[in-house]
Amino acid sequence: MADALFSVEGKVACVTGASSGLGRRAAAVLAARGAKVVGVARRSDALEDWRDGAGGTTAAVAGDVADRAGLPDLCARIAAPFGPPDILIHAAGINTREPADRVTAEGWDATLALNLSAPFFLSQHFAPAMAAKGWGRIVLFASLQSTRAFPGGIAYGASKGGISQLTRAMAQAWSGRGITCNAVGPGFFPTELTAPVFADSDLAARNAVQTCIGRNGKPEDLDGPLLFLCSEASAYVTGQVLMVDGGFTAK
After folding, report:
1. Which residues pair with 62 in a beta bridge?
2. 217-234 per-position pLDDT tens digit
3. Is 236 exposed, middle or buried (CB count within 10 Å of its CB: 0-12, 13-18, 19+)?
């Protein structure tokens, strides 16, 4: 019973940002559990490296999800290997880390385009196919900065605050047709995006102490929450942000 409840066997999943970090982990976990996974990222060599290690039934699509003009072609290539996705995970992201007084228009626009606009427009494209089947799972990536302000994070924080509301708004729009829309909010996990944080051992230690559990995240800590949100186990959960932060936001 438990296996069936959390099963993604045979589902078609699309994971953006699959070339590295938590997106790569999510794509690998879904493939290992029997989903047909399409990994999307800009770096084709890193995508192929993911495929080599993932096993299972996978496909790699190189492209920029923030390129609005190229989105129709990208979506067609995503759907080509296995059909339109049943599960859509938006893990692609950028953090320019520009202090408020030195935020550039280019940095702002790039951050909002990838972190906030791309998840909506990609979801908008595939929502009709999910609705036609009466089943879909959309999982976005929120952040500690969805609710908290960190130094140098004004553009990133604005985008991740937007993700919280986008999650609720998409749930309101589409959940009546069988599509749940939720977000995970990771704490501090070692990834390319958080490399500057973990490069400072004192800062990493302070972040660990700030959690209730007493440590920073490990990639496998995200596996269970993702499988929950991607499976039948979360059928009555939508419009929610699940913080996977070891209790960082609880203190």
Report:
1. 41
2. 999 999 999 999 999 999
3. exposed
Q: Which two tokens stand for residue 110?
A: 């790039």
Q: What is the pLDDT of residues 56-71, one digit of tens each?
A: 999 999 999 999 999 9
Q: Catalytic annotation on 236?
A: no
Locate the domains of the chain by residue range: 2-189+222-243
223, HSE (Cβ side, Cα atoms, 13 Å): 12
Rounded CA separation 8/174 (Å): 21
Point out the catalytic residue in the list 82, 126, 156, 248: 156
CATH number of 2-189+222-243: 3.40.50.720
Count CB neighbours of 119 within 10 A.
Answer: 30
Chain mean position to CA 161: 14
Nearest to 250 by CA among 140, 144, 167, 142: 144
62: tokens are: 């190189």
pTM exceeds 0.90: yes
